[in-house]
Design goal:
Chain lengths: 249, 324
């Protein structure tokens, strides 16, 4: 069997009496899109936060590229190649789209302690950043402040940043949210191709996108994974239909 | 086309240079001293502006560095004047470049632990903890009789600079003016650099900075140290201007004054501190001539700026700050 890129075992996290993550185990294998679905409040974002390092788990392990992530904060995990997008876009609002991506390029080059050379004329930053914006279709909006971009465009920008980091796995938290049907369709095609670059753990409410994209689906309800498997198995799982899909239909 | 801000900046820089030259020509040396005060306060605020304007770190304790710079000048000069060596037999000095080097070094060394502790907090806690550190240093200074205690430390003559007669007001002004321009160039370079990009992202959204793999704490700490050093340099000049290192340089009023300068002029703007210092000293001089309670009116003006002109004077004149 292929070694998983990301391996989560028996992860637990409580907020007071609320078990937000209750013994979650899941894998992300090379070249796949693993979708994580579940009703609101199931703990999907909490799980993403624990993987990316912005929240510490109470117990359980997260291994990324064979390395235990315990004790590593968000910056260290990002440097090792965990790229994420946020459920609520998290960007430098005053900076242009281009500068937001340039920051990722500079972080990847590991060179933030340079005090003199101006960044805006530094081709080793602007060119790769522009290339990433072109890939996600934001090149025309490169010079607009992130605050002035539309909701969907900010999602695209976050993906461009994750790309610029040279991430070895992507954690995307509802990348389709706030996008029109056109945008969702374009992004679906984009993510479909992206999986060959690095596997994607995808949290998404848009079921059409999930069923079109996912190689595997895990269903999270009240912090527990109630089912995990191929798309068709999940679609036909009675427990899943009751807990989640039935609700949506 | 030249940007409006560039034109305004050039006018401000030339104005500060022109006033003492004209004052010299018409024989009114008082205005040279006033301009020197503007240059030094602006320099101190340029320092603070690195932390506050670029990094969003509202340090309410920068008086500590301003005062340490002042005492560095006072202490070194006193030892040199009395020809008695300091601790470990180190000689005092009256040479400005040496004094500046000591002021910069000591401020950097003091800012390291203060920053390392304070930066674990944020928001109002950061404001309070930086204030607390500065007050500790203030009370330490006034209770240390060897260096004047509450009376402060007088310098019998202004310290010297190679080939320049610093005792005359105009040459001393020019030294301060040159250092101000140098510090502003440093600010501009930092702002446009990779470090500046990371620092400004830390202000806007530190989660974003962490998510690309840059630890916000380290970036902020370095900015805090650089900021403290520049403010400390201004303190050394201030002591030389007044020929007096006063404990009041260390007090929280001074920290507040520096923040006020930045808000008046325009936070995060290259020329914000200079515009702010000009306004402040102008108010101090004109309003102060009319009433002893001039700070009441300064308060009203500050209120107006905060409510109606968030970008300060430069925001009013040159419009919203733009990033690349």
């Amino acid at each position: 069997m292929v070694e998983p890129i990301l391996e989560i075992r028996e992860l637990r996290k409580s907020f007071g009496a609320l078990k937000a993550t209750d013994g979650v185990s899941l894998d992300l294998r090379p070249g796949e899109i693993h979708a994580l679905i579940g009703p609101n409040g199931a703990g999907k974002s909490t799980l993403i936060h624990q993987i990316s390092g912005s929240i510490r788990q109470d117990s359980g392990t997260i291994r990324f590229l064979g390395e235990d992530m315990a004790g590593l904060g968000m910056p260290e995990r990002a440097r090792r190649g965990l790229g994420r997008s946020f459920q609520i876009s998290s960007l430098a609002p005053e900076f242009s789209a281009l500068r937001n991506v340039m920051l990722a390029v500079q972080a990847r080059q590991g060179s933030s302690l340079r005090f003199f050379r101006p960044v805006m004329t530094d081709k080793s930053l602007t060119e790769p950043a522009m290339a990433m914006l072109e890939r996600v279709g934001l090149a025309k909006r490169a010079n607009l402040p992130a605050a002035e971009l539309s909701h969907g465009e900010r999602r695209q920008l976050e993906i461009a940043i994750a790309l610029a980091l040279g991430s070895k796995a992507f954690l995307f938290d509802e990348p389709m949210a706030g996008m029109g049907p056109e945008g969702s369709k374009a992004l679906t095609g984009f993510l479909d191709a992206l999986r060959h670059e690095a596997p994607i753990l995808l949290v998404e409410h848009d079921m059409d996108a999930v069923f079109a994209l996912a190689d595997r689906i895990s269903v999270l309800v009240y912090g527990r994974i109630i089912a995990s498997g191929k798309v068709d198995d999940i679609r036909n799982d009675p427990e899943v239909r009751r807990a989640y899909l039935g609700e949506a239909a | 086309m030249i940007a409006r801000e560039t034109i305004i900046n050039t006018i401000l820089a030339l104005l500060l240079l022109a006033v003492p030259l004209i004052a010299m020509a018409v024989g009114e040396p008082f205005y040279i001293t006033l301009s020197t005060r503007v240059a030094i306060l602006a320099l101190a605020a340029v320092g603070l502006n690195i932390a506050l304007g670029l990094g969003g770190l509202v340090s309410f304790g920068h008086a500590a560095f301003f005062g340490i710079g002042g005492y560095a000048a006072g202490i070194l000069a006193t030892h040199a004047f009395n020809a008695e060596p300091m601790l470990f037999g180190v000689e005092g000095t009256t040479s400005m470049p040496w004094i500046w080097l000591v002021a910069l070094t000591v401020c950097g060394l003091v800012a390291l632990p203060i920053g390392a502790i304070s930066l674990r907090t944020s928001g109002v806690y950061f404001i309070m903890i930086t204030l607390a550190f500065a007050q500790m240093i203030y009370y330490f200074a006034i209770s240390w009789p060897a260096y004047g205690g509450e009376d402060g430390l007088s310098l019998s003559v202004r310290n010297s600079f190679p080939l320049i007669n610093t005792a005359k007001p105009l040459p001393f002004f020019l030294i301060c003016y040159a250092l101000l321009l140098l510090a502003m160039s440093l600010f501009a370079l930092i702002r446009g650099s990779r470090f500046g990009a990371a620092l400004q992202t830390a202000r806007q959204n530190d989660t974003r900075l962490a998510a690309v793999g840059i630890a916000p704490f380290n970036i902020r700490l370095i900015a805090f140290i650089i900021s403290a050093m520049v403010t400390g340099l201004a303190g050394a000049l201030f002591a030389d201007l007044n020929r007096f290192a006063s404990p009041s340089m260390l007090s929280w009023h001074m920290s507040g004054e520096l923040i006020v300068l930045i808000i008046l002029g325009g936070k995060g703007r290259l020329f914000g501190p200079l515009a702010g210092a000009m306004l402040y000293v102008l108010f101090e001089y004109t309003l102060g001539g009319i009433t002893e309670r001039w700070q009441f009116f300064l308060g009203l003006i500050l209120l107006g700026v905060v409510l109606f002109a968030r970008g300060g004077l430069l925001g009013l004149l040159a419009g919203k700050a733009r990033h690349g």
